[in-house]
C-alpha cells in the first residue's frame, strides 16, 4: 500500500463505497508492502469500510534487485493468508530498468513458479518487454489459475501475444489521457480486440489520475479507487456500450480472476 494513503484511509474507503467500488485489491510490490497490504486487509479500518479488500503478494520488477534468500519463503507465507488473491505485481520492465534485466527475469520466473505451486492467480507487469515476457510465461503454460496483465499499454502485436497465452487484460486511467504523446487514444482503439470476458478495469492508484476529470484544477493530485468510474466511462465510450453494461462484465471478470465474492 502506498504511503500516501496512510493519513486518510477511512475516507478513501468511504469514498470507494460511495462510488460503488465494492471490492479492492491492494497491490504488493515487495515483501514489506505485501505485508502492509495484508495488515490493512485484516485490520479494523477495512472491517468497518463496507468494502471487500484482498491483497497481492509479490515483487515488482523495479524491486527485483532487492530480493534475497528469504524472499520466496516470505512471499509463500504471505500467500497463505486467506485474503491473498494473487502473486504479484511481478513481471518485466525494460523501460526504466531500475533492476537489471537479468535479475528481473530470474525473479519473475520464480514468482511464476510460486504461483503455479500455490495455484494462485498472477498479477503481472510488462513494459517494453513483451516478447521476453511472453517467452518466460509460455514455458509455464498452462497455468493452473488466471493471470492478468496489469495496466496494459502495449501494441496490438503485444495484445495478440498476451491474449494468445490466455491472459486477462487490465486497463487503467491511461485510457483517459488525452495527450497525443501518451497514447490514450491508441489504447482506446485496442479495446474492441479484447474479448469482453478477458477485460478488467483498474485504477493503479495512487498513479494515473484520470485526465478526463475536467477542468484540470478539479483533478486530484492522487488517484484512488473512487475514481474508477472515470476509467469505466472512458472504456465504455471506446467500446460503444454503457458504463452499466461494462461495469457488470468487468466486475464479473475481476471476481473470476481473483476469486472474489462481492454479493
From TrEMBL:
Gene3D superfamilies found in the cross-reference section:
Metal-dependent hydrolases
Q: Provide the binding site for a divalent metal cation 2.
A: 125, 150
Keywords linked to the UniProt accession: Hydrolase, Metal-binding, Nuclease
Q: Which domain of life is it from?
A: Eukaryota
Which is a Gene Ontology cellular component entry for this protein?
Answer: cytosol
Recorded hits in Pfam families, A to Z, give: TatD_DNase
The Swiss-Prot or TrEMBL record annotates one GO molecular function as: single-stranded DNA 3'-5' DNA exonuclease activity
Where, if anywhere, are coiled coils annotated? none
Q: Where does a divalent metal cation 1 bind?
A: 89, 204
Q: Enumerate the InterPro entries for this protein.
A: DNase_TatD-rel_CS, Metal_Hydrolase, TatD-like, TatD-type_Hydrolase
Similarity annotation: Belongs to the metallo-dependent hydrolases superfamily. TatD-type hydrolase family.
Q: What is this protein called?
A: Hydrolase TatD
The organism named in the record is Edaphochlamys debaryana
